[in-house]
Amino acid sequence: MNRFTRLVALLGVLVMMMSIALTTAAQDEDTLVIAWEQEPSQLNPVASESFASLMDGFFARGAWNWDRNNDIFPIMVSEVPTIENGLARTLDNGNTQVEYVLNEGMLWSDGEAITSDDCLFGHELLMDPETGTLQRGVYPDVVESFEVIDDLTFVMTYNQPFPDFQSSATAMCMLPAHQLRPWIEGGDILDNHPRFSGEDVVGYGPYIFEEWRVGDSVQLVRNPNWGANEWEVSPAWDRVVLRFITESAQMQNAFEVGDVDVAFNFSDDLVDGYSEIANSEVFSTPGVFGDAIWVNVSGNAHPALSDGNVIRALIHAVDRATLAEALVGPGTEVPRGWYASQFWPSEEDMPLIEYNVDEAVRLLDEAGWVDTNDDGVRDKDGVEMILRFYTTSGRQIREDYQVFIQDYLSEVGVATQLLPIPSGTLFAVFNQRGILSTSDFDLALFALSTDPLSPFADAEVWIGCDGIPSTENPSGRNGWGFCSEEFDALDLQVGQTVDPAERLALAQQAQVEFFNGNFWHGLYLRPTWYAFNTSVVDASTAQNLGTLSGNYFFDIENWQPAG
Amino acid sequence: MTQYIIRRILQAIPLLILITIFVFFLIKAAGDPQLESTFNPNATERDIALERARFGLDDPLPIQFMIWLIGDDWYTREINVGDNDDDGEDEIIERSGTREGILRGDLGIALSQDGKLVSTVIGEKLPNTLLLGSASLTLTIIVSFTLGIFAALNQYTIADNMITGFAFFTFSVPVFLIALILVQIFAVQFFRWGLPHLPVQGMYDARGDGSFDEVLRHLILPTLSLSLISIASYSRYIRSTMLEVINTDYVRTARSKGLAERRVLYLHALKNASLPIVTLIGLNIPFILSGAVITETVFQWPGMGTTFIRALNELDQATISAIVLMIAVAVVVFQLLTDIVYAMLDPRIRYS
User: Fold this and answer.
1) From the CA of B202, how many Å to the nearest CA of chain A?
2) Looking at the structure, do residues B49 and B141 belong to the same domain, yes or no?
3) DSSP B188
4) Prediction ipTM score
5) B50 and B186 assigned to the same domain
């Protein structure tokens, strides 16, 4: 045997040894593995990180939640407070008061009873910024008092009429007072408590937090103190593993080889790949982020955009329905409004601008934008109709949309410069010369999230006249320049009208004003995609996934194994 | 020798200071790490102001640098959280600093890790990176020495040409592609063929118990993809240095003295041929600490590389500065160690 043969034989032995080591891990039927796109840095249930708050569905349930149809249902309370059931009421001074009645018999995962005192503790944390990092939102500004009536009842009073009491500035009962209050009283801040690093996590949900393998996974096990009450359905799997996989191609590979049983939130271009995998079922739920074309109507854009009919012509020229079907997925609809669809006015009051090339050409011709120099681009008074079209770089679907829209517009003689740029540059504030904030664009493609549960736009900074940025108003974000006194007044009323029917009517009037502003034209609602391994999960039992950004797994206890 | 070591350490101090200043201001010049949070309609002016104050982002740059060096526990910030109660006056909150600064051993708060201490983050990730790095380095040394020596002793044979071809091929393929090809073959295709397959990514089996053999199986693909390029270059170095050495007079003398060929090769020739490789390895070891950014990202190996990328994406100055500083210190230390080892291997070399 010469040396070369010996070397080859050595390598062969090495490969054989490797193959022996390749024994695949045994499939454990009591464990469900879910791919998790981003590892949170802390387990703060009121954190800004969406992938941290997504975990709440497993071990930190709140007072109530919303199902796939955005219908509210109670969790920790016996009944969701509403005006109709009298648990939410308007005081003589017009301010809102909400009564919470907690369910009897609820236990934290360490066996301690859940009481009003836990919610009072949450109130204390939210009111005092010195206690640590929480996403407090408007809570400290709008909540006037918190009164404990008994162990299971408490009353929150707002300092104004507050119709969004179900979705905003609600009571926070997710953190156990008996565990965390001594820590805060000891002078430390919430962020430093080991609970937020995954040690001794006490919560209320079907699972409890067992271990956080940093950079690898989170291990959850069945909560022994969940299931005593009728509404606490016991989950099918003893253990759930949330596996961190940031690379989308690797997530798909892991799903294919059975390393993970559920993948979600993957991008549209991977849907076909997931669908082709054996034993996979792929479906989507409507998202809350809607990409749209934002038109600069501030007067600082291309002169053509000062004419509303020209803007309508641009939208008529783009076949948004076909683009949504082709680029996002079958069945994707073009949203008529920026608000959540349940608040939209009738189609008659707020119609979608349909694809109609003839109408686009007619409107452009009528506005005086014609191609006088035969260069293929319309012009007027010596100005060519070349529009600067921005979007954020790095998101393939947006860049694809840009290219197709450019193509559609060129068909009617409108040229565009495509400018995909980093989001930091696009969204920077006025003093940092942000493209949007300084109105330095003609068209832009991006999403500005709206509250899917409320018709209140809270328009001041973003859509209101007071939000138009300038050297005097550098914090304004309304760089597209929509300004309607009527809209601002209506939005203000929506924010303080408690009666649901009256509120909806006002919101719909506001939306018509918004629509007539002609600065926002929806493209699609970004769907959330899910893939289930049907040999592990009965996917038909796992369809009730939330459509909000933080409640995908609120129904995990009702998921059933395959077969 | 002692004088030489002391002089080298003293020389390193201004170098490290310069590096910290350069890195600090370079990251700060890259932009505002919390800019995008201002585009979140759900974040109030108060939330944003308090969060920015926590990381000292609104302090003047020289103050930020000073705080990074000596801490801010001597300093009380007055934070303007805006007019939240609409009384026409902005609310001011006073908050004392808690940081001690890098000179007192506090590496700062990791903005990209929602406020964890940088030292905690490094403590969690460094062992994983060292495991991957040392496995890769060990494999690289064993295989590249084997291939390099073999190729040198069989110059211009088919085997030599095959090794050369392999080296050129692996050296010219980007590491992420190597990683994905390995996954596609040993994980996905093996699975499709019904064979036992290697894990796609991660450090443990999701359904496993976190045992050491699990870690070993997960280590195979990242180690291979990390090693292949190094093996390609190291084996070429070893081949050429061996060729140089085996034709020298002292090797011929050793042979003529009747020493066994094995003894001639491994004791006389290899010891001298490995001198340039020692330098190469010495210079590469510090970069093991920083993690193999691409390999760790593709394989989701929870190490320094993924931490570094996340910090870069979020312009997390404290974490980036700490990692860069750590690498800089390691480069200085390992260069020094390399020089010392060099002197031990080659008696002709003396430092003064």
Assistant:
1) 6
2) no
3) I
4) 0.75
5) no
